[in-house]
Design goal:
This is Radical SAM protein. With 300 residues, this protein is an alpha/beta fold. It has helices spanning 55-65, 87-96, 112-121, 130-133, 139-157, 174-181, 218-221, 277-283, 287-295; strands spanning 21-25, 72-74, 100-105, 125-129, 162-168, 193-196, 224-227, 233-234. The chain contains nine helices and eight strands. Strand 2 (72-74), helix 2 (87-96) and strand 3 (100-105) form a beta-alpha-beta unit. The protein binds S-adenosylmethionine and iron/sulfur cluster (2 copies).
């Protein structure tokens, strides 16, 4: 299924010897939060994108991923993974295929029962996107939830899953937020918080020429891509808009470079410089994951 045939010059393949790497397989396209700094939260995506991956499509995506250079697969992209009723089964299949599995959640649907299943299935990293949760739930509920997740991680995995809380500084300062958090019983200052300044992601909805060269991007250099929950292949985590989509995995048995060659959106992308996590966490084995493997009690 080729789209947007006109008006594009295919990007040159970085290296023929390097395999194509499927770094993300989106469990769910839909979301239940309304973050102002995310295209999904801003309502820029149509209802046709509210898809949930099927188990058949997941298996196909995992087969296509098996020749890549990554050791880990992320399960989020445009939506909230915990909305998938079979998230634990998805994680189990990814782990059985030999990949570590990471996801990011807004915490809204990450109830203790669901988290228990996900930890038992073998998730290796949960990023808890706290500022997203705040768009729907108050601090008390979110902080108690984090407390419960940490407790379950201790009981079920000997702290074998890495937990990170991340918080977007979107018009607020870190000091003001810290002061608010510290007033709540369940806030624990020993939890690692990653503060981030959101980039203007919604601005990528339209392709604007800002003179960015796609060859500087880690996604390009690693020949990495993402598979959305309907099977569409896109060139990176920022293409929620399917600008780059030329192929659906239902129609292919291997991913060729042509599927990743539409890089028109890259010319407007100023955030590719922040993409070194690709190799640090998912392509090279990070020290934190080696350490976690030494204590993790999870077995297949
Ligand atoms: C798009 S979300 C999808 C998964 C899930 N819904 C969530 O929010 O955790 C994935 C990650 O993107 C990050 N993110 C969202 N908007 C961002 C922005 N404008 N700039 C940088 N990171 C952003 C979030 O912190 C989150 O960890
Ligand atoms: S950042 Fe995550 S939680 Fe927020 S709207 Fe986007 S997909 Fe939903
Ligand atoms: S849109 Fe940005 S992050 Fe995505 S592949 Fe292009 S340059 Fe890289």
């Amino acid at each position: 299924m080729n789209k947007n045939i006109d008006n594009f010059v295919p990007a040159e393949e970085p290296s023929k010897d390097q395999p194509i790497t499927v770094l993300m397989i989106e469990a769910v396209g839909k979301c239940n939060a309304i973050c102002g700094y995310c295209p999904r939260g801003q309502g820029l995506l149509g209802p046709e994108t509210n898809t949930y991956i099927t188990m058949d499509l997941l298996d196909k995506a995992l087969d296509l991923a098996s020749s890549g250079s990554n050791h880990a697969i992320y399960l989020h992209h445009r939506g909230e993974p915990f909305l998938h009723p079979k998230l634990d089964e998805i994680i189990r299949r990814v782990r059985e295929k030999g990949f570590y599995t990471f996801l990011s959640t807004n915490l809204i649907s990450a109830t203790p029962d669901k988290v228990k299943k996900v930890l038992t299935a073998g998730i290796n990293q949960i990023e808890m996107h706290y500022s997203a949760g705040l768009t729907r739930l108050p601090h008390e509920v979110l902080l108690k939830r984090i407390h419960e997740i940490r407790k379950l991680n201790w009981e079920l995995r000997n702290f074998g899953c890495r937990l990170e809380m991340n918080f977007s500084l979107f018009g607020e300062t870190r000091e003001i937020i810290m002061e608010e958090l510290s007033r709540h019983t369940y806030y624990d200052e020993t939890l690692y918080v990653r503060w981030f300044e959101p980039h203007d992601w919604p601005s990528l909805e339209k392709i604007i020429d800002r003179g960015v060269d796609y060859r500087d991007c880690h996604w390009y250099k690693h020949k990495a891509c993402a598979i959305l929950s309907n099977g569409d292949i896109v060139i990176c985590c920022l293409d929620q808009f399917s600008h780059s989509c030329r192929t659906n995995i239902k129609d292919i048995d291997r991913i060729d470079w042509e599927s990743l060659a539409d890089r028109r959106m890259c010319q407007g992308c100023t955030q590719h410089v922040e993409m070194n996590w690709l190799e640090e966490d998912a392509i090279d084995m990070p020290l934190w994951l080696t350490r976690k493997q030494e204590i993790d009690t999870w077995t297949a």
